[in-house]
Amino acid sequence: MKKAILFATLLCASITQSIWAQKSVNLITTDIDHFWQAYDKIISTKDTSAQYTYLNTLFLEKSTAGQKAMINARNYTSKDYLRVISERQPYFNSIRANTLKAKDYAKAIAIKVEKLKQLYPALKPAEIYFTVGAFRSGGTTTGKMVLIGSEIAMAGEHLDNLVFTNVHEYVHTQQKTNMGDNLLAQCVMEGVAEFVSEKVMAIPSTLPALTYGKAHTESIKQVFILQMFNTGNGFWLYSNAENQFGLRDLGYYVGYAIAEQYYAKATDKARAIAEMIELDYNNMEALSAYVDQSGYFNQKVKQLRDEYEKNRPFVVSATPEKFTDSVGSLKYTVKILFSKPMDKRLRNFEYGPLGKENAMYVKKFVGFSVDGSAATFETELEPGRQYQLVLGEGFKDASGVEMKPYLIDFKTRDK
Q: What residue range is the signal peptide (predicted)?
């Protein structure tokens, strides 16, 4: 009798879990169907006007909330879609069968989402959209929506990681933000999702950055320390930018390593998982406490931040000098002197506090000096007006450290 009661209890629990998993994984694939309907029509004609009509009426206008969110997140345009369809027809043809099997992955994803709920009981339901983009994202999130870029994620070489990718993005839907205020915050956020996904899947992540990172821990750490408070991601995330390691996405490794060490030190593992997922990544005090507790760095985050600010490059001077008059305007050359040699590939100009109406526009960027310690640009201004221009954080020194923003505030003489 006791065995029968136990069996019934376990059966009810299993059914309850199964129902929760099915309810929690709302997988929407209709955008894939609509894309292929548009695709077939688009490749059947050379008439550009007709192609735009097919794309809009058969695909874009029928977009689900998830497809619209992916389009907005990656700034896709009709022109982007028609370009990639034209240029990559053999590729699209090769992945078509895979994309049409998207629904078949629902059960496997549901099982892993249930496992995630076991690790993190506070898990909230989310919707998974299999979208089609123009090769700028294999997966991202917005709000409680997981957005899969099927044109990338469902290529043959990525199918084995499809469930893992969905779990990673599902974790993101539980986090407080998907946009960190600085590089450290963004890497920690991604690292938590990758680490928790590994626990759910019970297999190692196949991300090349993790394999490389584990073999080059110290060299990566030393470079990361120099750039960790940059507001941009640089080569560390979502970029194929050239770097000294010759590998992209190493920020995933840094965030993963921090999570791994934090988890290893925790006595209450379930609580550690919850703390990592629920961390306010943009609360610098909370983020610092988490990273310090992991012991990943040899110094406290506050010390590292103080050193970062102390060593940031800055503008020594940037004074406009008139070099010629033209009809109704004045031409100036501006020479910028930096506190240290800068990366000559990078520059960044922004509006000042007075906005667009008082902007000093860069008519011609002449270039950097040979050693990168100075730069020159030309501008054309009207008499008797106040102009502003911010030299922004996109200027970086040779170590990739963002420059302190500098405001040029200048009034031209009257006629």
A: 1-21
